[in-house]
Amino acid sequence: MQILEATADELSQAEAHILPAFQKSLEDLLRERKDPRPQVSDDRAIFGLADKAVRDYHAATARSSSLPQLSQVPTLGDTAATLHPAQRARTAGRAARQGRC
Known about the structure:
Elements: H1 8-30, H2 43-63, H3 85-97
Helix pairs in contact: 1-2, 1-3, 2-3
């Protein structure tokens, strides 16, 4: 298996595909509730949604050479600019739960 290091532009392109899919799934999860804000108890489900969005993206890269391929997940000490989209999605889930998006 070849390990690639994506550029910041490639990460932004990938995020442009992954984040909307994650946000739609999150909205679908929360839509039926009286209080549609994410709760702490939703962490596992939100992680699953983020993971699915990234897995779907990686599957799409196999079908389309126009989508940038990404490297393995970096450590948490890396800057936000180099975060793997799954980490960005988890961060987005925390932000949604806190009412910041």
